[in-house]
Design brief:
This protein has about 400 residues and is an alpha/beta fold. The chain contains 15 helices and nine strands.
């Protein structure tokens, strides 16, 4: 089969102390007046000062808005508030510094400066008609890949469900990935963000949208994260671990942006919207049941994942080797104290299964990439299995 492949990415600056280049990148994009969108933890960690000094060194006028939120994914109202602030201040550039949620706010607020309406008007695929103001995105966690993707996730308070804006016009102009900025990231956040990056590589590798370019990147990201997530959680000042986790995260972000996630993320949206669990944790409690359900369609690919995770697959029957992939994933999650089923995350109300299944099935933007065509009933069965630990009988 001869595929037509499109591969999209912003300009990426990766490496230690690369945040110091932020002023030069802003100047190159023609910026004069920059609004930094960040969060309280980033400000407290001292990361903000590096960015401010870099921007001011290039004579840019700079202001800062510190985003507060009461849920892991920001409500759409937060985006509108930032966009209004930027509009009134006549800012010609948006700089996002922080975790994935803050970066999503920065990307979407930029888009609202050149497009009418509100965030909810753009939920779905390729609905943002115009690029926003120039954006520089600087992650302080290794996980979401938001710095190199066209996606932004928000809480729709009316439906109490997480929803996505997925548009090429949301893709940042520049991503600055400085592993040193992740040194203050706490262990729990490091673990949840890191496993998010892991699934950004695994899900597309198992999807219908995989291609040879994203396959190579996915397997590399899987290998890096498997090797370095544990050390990064165990010792946040381990520079080797932080460097390689940042590299694994941005590599997985390239995969996510070009091949996309599918079943796990579709099923995570209604659960995360209802329980407001951190995104990475919502994924861990569903992932094993989801991948087990895809085994019949993607067994050989699960074998490749097991191999990338360092499992001894040579000479094993495919079924046994594929099983090793799920065993290795479970071990990776357990090794950094992440829950592997809904009950471990404190989610015990099984009466919600049917409602979740209906909502998840609506996410055809994601499910269209799934290797297996799934009905509402199929999804409900996967949710049921996700309540208990996939590995408890193994």
């Amino acid at each position: 089969m001869f595929q037509t492949i499109e591969f999209k990415t912003p300009s990426v600056v990766f490496g230690m102390d690369t945040v110091l280049r932020i002023g030069k990148e802003a100047k190159r994009l023609g910026g004069h007046r920059a609004l930094i969108v960040t969060g309280p933890r980033v400000k407290a960690a001292g990361v903000l000062e590096k960015a401010l000094s870099g921007l001011k060194a290039e004579s840019l006028e700079v202001d800062v808005i510190v985003e507060e939120r009461d849920t892991p994914e920001p409500a759409t109202s937060v985006v509108e508030e930032v966009a209004d602030f930027a509009r009134q201040g006549c800012f010609d550039m948006i700089v996002g510094i922080g975790g994935g949620s803050i970066l999503d706010v920065a990307k979407m607020a930029s888009a609202l400066l050149t497009n009418p309406g509100k965030t909810k008007d753009y939920f779905g695929k390729e609905k943002v008609p115009l690029r926003g103001k120039p954006t520089i995105i600087v992650p302080t966690t290794s996980g979401t890949g938001a710095e190199v993707t066209k996606h932004a996730i928000f809480l729709d308070r009316e439906a109490n469900v997480k929803k996505a804006v997925a548009s090429t016009n949301l893709l940042p102009d520049v991503a600055i990935v400085d592993p040193l900025l992740t040194l203050t990231c706490p262990p729990r956040v490091t673990a949840a963000a890191g496993i998010d990056a892991f699934f950004h590589a695994v899900e597309p590798f198992l999807s219908r949208m995989a291609n040879p370019i994203t396959d190579a990147l996915a397997l590399k990201a899987i290998s890096l994260i498997t090797r370095w997530l544990g050390p990064a959680v165990a010792d946040g000042e381990n520079l080797d671990a932080r460097y390689h986790m940042a590299l694994g995260s941005v590599t997985a972000g390239f995969v996510l942006n070009n091949s996309g996630t599918s079943l796990v993320h579709a099923m995570a949206y209604p659960v995360g919207g209802e329980y407001h669990t951190p995104h990475g944790i919502t994924l861990t409690v569903l992932a094993l049941s989801c991948f087990d359900a895809l085994r019949s369609a993607k067994q050989e690919r699960l074998v490749q994942i097991a191999d990338a995770m360092g499992e001894p697959v040579d000479g094993l029957p495919s079924r046994e080797a594929a099983d090793l992939a799920l065993v290795a994933m479970r071990h990776l999650m357990k090794s950094v104290d992440l829950p592997v089923c809904l009950e471990e995350a404190g989610i015990t109300d099984r009466s919600r299964i049917q409602a979740w299944a209906v909502e998840a099935h609506k996410e055809q933007r994601l499910l269209s990439r799934s290797a297996r065509i799934l009905s509402v009933e199929d999804i409900a069965k996967i949710y049921t299995k996700a309540f208990t630990d996939w590995g408890q009988d193994r």
